[in-house]
Amino acid sequence: MSIKELSIKDIHKGLQEKQFSATDIAHAAFEEIEKQESSLHAFLGLTKELALQQAKETDKRIAKGEPLLALSGIPCSIKDAILVKGEKCTAASRMLENYIAPYDATVIQKIKEAGGMIVGKTNMDEFGMGASTENSAFGPTRNPHDVERVAGGSSGGSAASVASGECTVSLGEDTGGSIRQPASFCGVVGLKPTYGRVSRRGVIALASSLDQVGPFGKTAEDAEILFQAIQGKDALDATSLEAPYEKSGFGEAKTLRIGVPKEYFAKGLDKEVEKTVRDAIGKFEGAGAKIVESELPHTKYALAAYYVINTTEASANLARYDGIRYGLSKDAENILEVYFNSRGAGLGNEVKRRIMLGTYALSAGYYEAYYLKAQQVRTLLKQDFDTAFQQVDVIMGPVSPILPFPFGEKTVNPLAMYLGDVYTVPVNLVGLPGISLPAGKAGNLPVGLQVIAPALREDLLFSTGKLWESIQ
Amino acid sequence: MISPEHVEHIATLARIKLREHEIEKYQKDLSEILEYFEVLKEADTSSVFPMTHSVLQESVSREDEQRSERPEVIERMFALAPALKDGFLKVKAIFSAR
To answer: Would the pTM count as exceeding 0.90?
Structure first.
């Protein structure tokens, strides 16, 4: 049997009608993975024993006539920045090549409690730094729609594993677009929740004021089911919010007011991407939604503010990789040399580049000009969004200014890679929720539509996604 | 343009060992990116506070009571250490006679 076309609902129906067992589903997932992995490299490691054990528990439930849990029998892959107890967690870095997670991340505990079957850890850009998964220390992930092109990043493996049908859903992490952009590149749904919605405990930190874990799915409904399972206040994450998820949505299409910021359709946007996104917005209008031109005037400062905050917070978060308590350790004559050699050997080029940028920006004499200034620009951006949301319910635009590109095209010049983040980073800076919906294709290359909502309004995003699926 | 000496200084602060050929490469990369950051100077931030959270929370605290980690987790964490001695992490001397 094949799990490729099956949604969460399909799998649950099949389990309840005894068409197949959870163990059958697990085997089918691993068969699909074996078939496709040599051409995709979405996974860094598989967790067969764990998945089969979870499948067995689900099959026992069914045999006893007990109700299915939210994720019972659902094959789920996990970005290799999220700790799964007893399994390797590498963050795609040589620094953590042999690191075995001593505990489960809170989101993993929740997935296990919801009956989910964790099939493996997915490939990513090293420590989340990148937008193509080319910065993985263990080789890149290929786009299932065109294997000569990147899957996007940094959660490229997660996006590819869902797009290819190797598994049903996946958990990624987004700091500046790392869920939304690979979702866009691979033609699947990817959500970055409101900052604080999902616990970051047990998630390898990149930038603490920006990071959020989020779901990938083939449909808005599947992504929502996974989101509901993982969201919620965690006493062990002081930045998590007490805010139960309300599935209100917006009802009929004609009540929906969509803001389209002119700043998101300016110079630098690929013509084919623009056409696909505008056509999609046009379909919403055809369904009765009201389109309003929005203004987000401080957009031009967002990318610089983002990379200041990303690199400065990363330099602090990655200081722990010192060869002392875990990870790669290079012996030396004295303790300082242990630090220098371990970090020199264990960290990749992009990681070193960003740590040094962050170190510079936080060093004496530069803090006000860079970090403080960037944090102030965040407030200006938040004001832009708050003003815009007084007139509209959601904001729409492209996820990426460019189509999925061939390997090596953006790696010569680091800044060229950063410029691709222009539409996704503002959303992380202001902590709002954003989703990428598969909007269509330019040739055979997927294009994502980004939808942004006010804080805690993921329901509007899923509602928009479900509406899109009915009108596209 | 940031100087090679400055790049070496930053690498030292970041505790990262760079090889000779890497200094020139990072000098070029960092200079270009720092130049891009200059656009921030144009933003008028005179009347705004810095922002760290989209949904403001008051100081999040917990009861000041001792909470110990589970022994099996501690065991797994120690298994990851590069060097152990008598149940402690072993490191190079901090103070040396030099």
So the answer is: yes
